[in-house]
Specification:
There is one protein chain. By secondary structure, this protein is an all-alpha fold. The chain has a domain at 48-77. The chain contains 2 helices and no strands. The protein has helices spanning 4-42, 45-79. Helix 1 runs antiparallel to helix 2. The longest helix has 39 residues, at 4-42. The termini are far apart. The mean pLDDT is 82.
Length: 96
C-alpha cells in the first residue's frame, strides 16, 4: 500500500497543475458573466467592467496560490537530504 501512495500523489499534483489553466479561464468567465448580469439588472455600463476586473483579480489570486504551493513543495525538496549537495573534504579526494 505504501508503494502506491507516491504514484497517486504525483497524479494528484499533476492534475492540480493542469487545473490552474482551467481555473484562470473559469475565473475570468465568471467575472464577465457576473458583470454582464449586473449591467442588465441595474443598467450601468461600469458594472460590467467591475465584473471583468473581479474575474481578472480572481485569476491572479489563483496563480499566486499555485505559486505559493509550488514554492512550498520545492523548498521541501531543497531540504530533503536525498537532493542535498554533498560536500567533499580535501581528505576525501584522491590525489594524483
Amino acid at each position: 500500500m505504501s508503494q502506491e501512495e507516491p504514484k497517486l500523489k504525483k497524479v494528484v499534483e499533476a492534475a492540480d497543475g493542469l487545473s490552474l489553466g482551467i481555473s484562470i479561464v473559469v475565473a475570468v468567465l465568471l467575472g464577465v458573466a457576473i458583470g454582464y448580469g449586473l449591467r442588465k439588472l441595474f443598467g450601468y455600463e461600469w458594472l460590467f467592467w467591475l465584473g471583468v476586473f473581479w474575474g481578472i483579480g480572481a485569476a491572479i489570486l489563483n496563480v499566486y496560490k499555485a505559486y505559493k504551493k509550488q514554492k512550498k513543495v520545492l523548498d521541501e525538496l531543497a531540504n530533503d537530504p536525498k537532493y542535498a549537495r554533498r560536500k567533499y573534504d580535501a581528505s576525501d579526494e584522491d590525489e594524483f
